[in-house]
Amino acid sequence: MSRILPLIFQNLTFLFGIGFLAPLVAQILERTLPSIAGTPWPLAVGLIIGGGWGALAQKTGRWL
Amino acid sequence: MTDLSVEALRALPAKELNRLEAEVAARFMGGLPWGSVLWGLGNLAIWLSLWPLTLSGVMPLWLAFPIATLNVALCYLPSHEAQHRIIAREGEPLFWLNELVGHLSPLPMLLPYGVARLTHYEHHLHANDPELDPDIHTKAPNAWRHLLNTIAHRQPGSATGGNYGKALARIGTDEARRAGLVAALYTLAYHAILFTLAWSGFAIEAALIWWLPRILGTTYIQFYLSWAPHHPAQEMGRYRDTRAFRSRLGVLLSSGMPFHILHHLYPRIPLLRHGEAYKALRPFLVVRGCRLDGL
User: Fold this and answer.
1) Chain A: closest CA distance from residue B191 (Å)
2) Does the structure's ipTM exceed the value 0.85?
3) Among B152, B131, B132, which residue's Cα sits nearest to residue B140?
4) Residues of B with CB below 8 A from A15's CB?
5) Chain A neighbors of B204, CB-CB under 8 A
6) A27/B204 Cβ within 8 A
7) Average pLDDT over residues B46-74
8) What are the pLDDT digits (tens) for B174-209?
9) CA-CA-CA-CA dihedral for B49, B51, B54, B57, to nearest 10
């Protein structure tokens, strides 16, 4: 536990991208484009945007 | 009846002026501010009720989002009353209520009471000190720059993002260490809740009831509770580190902050009595050379 917690805090920005932004993007896509709901595409796009943005923010220290 | 006109007060010796000012201020202290208690707990109850109402589809998200944003904007001040032990002091029978409001009220903005109280005391002690005031990051030459600063402050690599942590480290007591630990637990719990909701199919609900309202609500709080009353934040000292000001939104919509100077002078005057207290104490503030900006 003492090793996991610092690891979580050090990578919280990236984790936020994967853990929150990715499903958020996916669910926005599913609601705005109901035809692709149920396919893997919304989640794939969500993971690319959320994970990518999170990784970039983690590296640069800036979301914007 | 004592003459409390500016002219009469100017003629008083310093000691007598101090005594009279404290005597007038004391008239507005004491009593249980039920308004703040109901405000804090009621506001939290409304915010909490948004979750079942939206998740069950009873309330549309377009309605829940502005309510949640208002809830966050309103959640700090009742806790602020508790931080100053205005609801009840240690040792008094209702101290538990003070602590209850202090802990529960700011949950929507995810501010642990211990962190808020300890860092806020530091803010009072060192208002506008560029090194020691934990809220100094809100200082900016104008409102627009302040808003840009708040965006910069929220970035993961921000130089000012750790101001409260640094203040707790400087305080260095067991209580401050405990507060830091609780803050870490709050952060973990917040992310765990957001991630769980998001991966359970409720990401949009979580974004519009907590994530975005928290960003918008705390932006409002930093603007009206910190930047505006301390602007330009260049002077230190009891009568110069805070100002009175006229707000475009009026007193109510700026959370009573046009009278914030009173709070720094007499932190135990309840917020809901600031208007009448300001009226009574204004001549003293004029004599002291406070910045009142026409209010």
Assistant:
1) 7
2) yes
3) B152
4) 191, 195
5) 24, 27-28, 31
6) yes
7) 98
8) 999 999 999 999 999 999 999 999 999 999 999 999
9) -90
Query: Quick check: A20 and B187 CB within 8 A?
Result: no
How long a stretch of residues is chain B?
Answer: 295
- Cβ of B198 under 8 Å from any chain A Cβ? yes
How many other CB atoms are there within 10 angstroms of residue B174's CB atom?
7
- Stated as kind and residue range, the H or E segment containing B199 is none
Query: Cβ atoms within 10 A of the Cβ of B179, count?
Result: 22
Question: Amino acid identity of B145?
Answer: R
Helix boundaries (H) for B126-207: 143-153, 163-171, 174-197, 203-206
What whole-number distance in Å separates Cα of residue B268 and Cα of residue B271?
9
Structure tokens at A12: 């919280």
User: Do residues B153 and B160 make contact, with C-beta atoms less than 8 angstroms apart?
Assistant: yes
Which pTM value belongs to this model?
0.95
pLDDT tens per residue across span B224-268: 999 999 999 999 999 999 999 999 999 999 999 999 999 999 999
